[in-house]
Design brief:
This protein has helices spanning 2-19, 22-40, 49-62, 78-108, 124-156, 162-178, 184-204, 209-228. It contains 8 helices and no strands. By secondary structure, the protein is mainly α. It has one domain.
Amino acid sequence: MDESIKELETGDSHRRRWRRNPLLALCEFGAIALIFWADAHHHIYLSKTLYLFPLAWFSLWLRGLRWTDLGLVRFQNWRKTVLVGVSCGVAMELFELYMSQPILTRWTGKAPDLELFRALHGNVTWTLIAMAGTWTLAAFGEEMVYWGYFMNRVTDLMRPNRTAWIVSLVVVSCAFGASHIDQGITGQLENVVDGVFLGAIYLSCRRNLSVSIVAHGVADTLDVLLLFFGLYPTLR
């Protein structure tokens, strides 16, 4: 019995050392950069999230952490989680369509490149597939990877104070924008703004992933519906 307890304590101590190891964090960031490089050169299939998620999970396991430690729990109760998430998602979508997208389009002289999504117009099959991807790869996957894993990992390199979280928010929002390279410069900048929104939701809800997952899913669902009905502003 005593030996079992000692083994557990040794394992916990080992994992705590991994949590403070800056070399591990740098190796992880190197792996993330490699995935982004591969995507930019068209070597990533379907979504970067499928490659980033296992990396994040391995990092958590190695450091003795769980997704719940990063905020994958309901926000006070399910009713409030959904209500706050839906409200944030609708607000985020309205801001994008009527504020950030028109301003960025005017500034860059280009609309976001969404030609790939034109196939959704009137196509029930592709729209259902897009909706499934919206709530799995985008809402759940990207929120867990970028705000749950990546944002906390960047903060780990600094003293965990307000300045560190703001720096992390900016860094991860830029990475989130860069991950949408296929949408052109306007689409990338637009997603940087969206990233700030999502990261701010995560932080303001006391680092709760469930709220930002719902918000992300609702905003992208509205996009998909607008594309299906041919009402998306830049693809009419």
